[in-house]
Design a protein that fits this description.
Helix content is 43%, strand content 16%. Helix 6 links the parallel strand 5 and strand 6. A 7-stranded parallel β-sheet has the order 3-2-1-4-5-6-10, sandwiched between helices. The chain has a 3-stranded mixed β-sheet with strand order 7-9-11. A two-stranded parallel sheet has the order 8-12. The chain is of the alpha/beta class and 354 residues long. The protein has a domain of 240 residues: Rossmann fold (3-Layer(aba) Sandwich), CATH 3.40.50.
Length: 354
């Protein structure tokens, strides 16, 4: 099978690329624009595989995208390319509108034309898998409930609104044009190779550098934390066996407040990296509460019964086991994130060095 992955140099996309190359026999084309969060170092270990190829293309560039798509002629499209950081969407929504909505439209139209020209047997084997977020559902607040596949959309940020729009586009192309689609909505991912702007790597790296650990508001916002390797195994399972036209929610069954996550990181570092401590007696001393961001949702949590009952998937990592793995990974891979922090990974991408 030939699998086209968009956004394969991003955090979740790179984990998916590594999984597909290391665990399957399929041919994979990675399309990524290599914006600020795209990092080919995250897939360096598989890039020499004869099963892997890469094309630096912005999915907003219809002509280049179509030429590459048609040349590769995939059986499966796994669409992960997206602008995904809420804070950045508040500061500059336009990039989110372009990539998440226009880019998705381009990919749908190209896939629709490709699908229309396939023979009957190839049509039976073609799928378009759109990867989205639980943030499209809005805020559970303190309801005690869970997001399921029938939860009405109620996005709070420009990021989640743009993803909600892309979800609706994909669903409409399935219903109106008969494109064989599946959609997945996931909870908060964490794991190795996550860009340092996100909560967990940001806190780990700041703590190891003796910098403040800024926590929004009271830190009691609750998230369902999903280890990225669990997520990508679910993605591929849905892509292969999910029912066409259906949505599957993917969660970690691991709710924890932001402040509890930060405190866990501090306490774990006390045990395994006391010699890294700077500017504090205890890592928790670095915690600093800051003004909450606008439209900050209180709670997200995923009901995973559908994917469990239909496809037999459950997360393998607990929040404690997963966080412990991630903390140790960042301790052992400072070269990876230091190149991001000093900007040298961008220069290397252009064929330069710092």
């Amino acid at each position: 099978m030939k699998i086209l992955v968009t956004g394969g140099a991003g955090f979740i996309g790179s984990a998916l690329i590594r999984y597909l190359i290391e665990e399957t026999d399929h041919e994979v084309l990675n399309i990524d624009a290599l914006t600020y969060a795209g990092n080919l170092d995250s897939i360096r270990m598989v890039e020499k595989s004869p099963k892997y190829s890469f094309a630096q293309i912005d999915i907003c560039n219809f002509k280049e995208l179509k030429e590459t798509f048609d040349s590769f002629a995939p059986n499966l499209v796994m669409h992960l390319a997206a602008e995904s950081h809420v804070d950045r969407s508040i500061d500059g929504p336009l990039d989110f509108i372009n990539t998440n909505i226009i880019g998705t439209y381009n990919l749908l139209e190209i896939s629709r034309a490709h699908y229309a020209n396939l023979g009957s047997s190839d049509k039976e084997n073609f799928r378009f898998h759109h990867v989205s977020t639980d943030e499209v559902y809005g805020d559970l607040k303190d309801s005690g409930g869970l997001f399921n596949e029938n939860t009405p959309y109620d996005p709070s940020s420009p990021y989640s609104a743009s993803k909600a729009s892309s979800d609706h586009l994909v669903g409409a192309w399935g219903k109106t044009f008969g494109l064989p689609i599946v959609i997945t909505n996931c909870s908060n991912n964490y794991g190795p190779y996550q860009f340092p702007e996100k909560l967990i790597p940001h806190m780990i790296i700041n703590a190891l550098s003796g910098k403040k650990l800024p926590v929004y508001g009271d830190g009691k916002q609750i998230r369902d934390w999903l280890y990225v390797d669990d997520h990508v195994s679910a993605l591929f399972l849905v892509a292969l066996k999910g029912r066409l036209g259906e949505t599957y929610n993917i969660g970690g069954n691991a709710e924890m407040t932001n402040i509890s996550v930060v405190e866990f990181i501090c306490d774990e570092l006390e045990k395994i990296a006391p010699h890294f401590k700077k500017n504090c007696e205890n890592y928790r001393d670095l915690i600093e509460y800051v003004k909450d961001r606008p439209g900050h949702d209180v709670r997200y949590a995923i009901d995973t019964n559908k994917i469990k009952n239909e496809l037999g998937w459950e997360p393998q990592e607990t929040i404690n086991s997963g966080l412990s793995k991630v903390i140790r990974w960042y301790l052992e891979n400072s070269v990876w994130y230091e190149k991001i922090l000093d900007g040298s990974y961008r220069l290397e991408r252009l064929g330069s060095s710092k």
